[in-house]
Amino acid sequence: MKCLAVIPAHGGSKRIPRKNILEFCGKPVIGWSIEAAIASGLFSRIVVSTDDPDIADVARQFGAEVPFMRPRVLSDDYTPTVPVIGHAIDELGGGQVLAQTCCIYATASFVRSQDLVRCHALRTESGADYAMPVTSFAFPIQRGVTVGNDGRLTMLYPDLVSTRSQDLPPVFHDAGQFYFGQSDAWLCGRPVIGQGAAAHVIPRYRVQDIDTPEDWMRTELMFTASRQSDSNGEENSISCRPENLS
Asked: If you compute the radius of gyration of the chain from its CA atoms, what whole number of angstroms results?
């Protein structure tokens, strides 16, 4: 069953101007997301939701559709992802057109077609509203501390002060790459992260949020290294149904 891919990419990035079409390792960063979507073979339509004509032009060059321009009310820095994807589904004819819709972020340079395929299968098999890649925190967050105005430390979980790090359960966070969901879940505004989501665990070296120029430089270095490591064999990954993720 073919699915819909929606890549949200508004034009008003403040900290990194023109972020969604800035060159990243040889091509506009949105190109990597579009190419991964195409390579997965999952999607009958790959649509970019944008308010920016320049982004629309680049998206079309890489093989995506831009059948509508996103309204200004859904294009500011505070607009959540879910209503943007719901709007795209509505514009394309509603949730009955394609049963599953995947939101892929424009700057998700690490997104891989294999992960898209795995999350599609995971969402279908588990019956979850969504399936998404996550990765583990590098250090047990149960050992985290806060620093008060007086400079003194306070443990977040003082009852775990004597627990060995290896005895603490792993904790994960959103990889910030894509979310595979039922179209009606997007349309109904159901939250992406929660009991309704199934998790596909990926390695930390393939996850980096890009908010600053320093993040951008770091991500390019990580991206290059990860591509080189691919030639030595694929890394392990784990898919989890919602109830199995700690």
From this structure: 19
Q: What CATH number is associated with residue 207? A: 3.90.550.10
Instruction: Kindly state whether residue 142 falls inside one of the protein's structural domains.
Output: no
- Report which listed range, 91-95, 190-194, 236-240, is most confident: 190-194
Distance CA 246, CA 104 (A): 25
What is the pTM (predicted TM-score) of this model? 0.90
pLDDT tens, residue by residue, 185-195: 999 999 999 99
How far apart, in whole angstroms, are the C-alpha atoms of residue 98 and residue 89?
9
Residues ≥6 apart with Cβ < 8 Å to 41: 113, 117
> What is each CA distance from 169 to 65, 135, 142, 166, 239, in whole angstroms?
43, 14, 9, 8, 17
* Segments forming the whole domain that contains residue 191: 3-134+173-244
Q: Which helix (H) or strand (E) holds 78?
A: none
Do the domain assignments include residue 84?
A: yes
Residue 125 placed within a domain: yes
- Asked whether 26 and 54 are in contact (CB, 8 A), the reply is no
Domain count, the chain: 1
**Closest by CA position to 193, among listed 172, 215, 167:** 172
Whether 197 is in a domain gets the answer yes
* DSSP count for the chain of H helices, then E strands: 6, 12
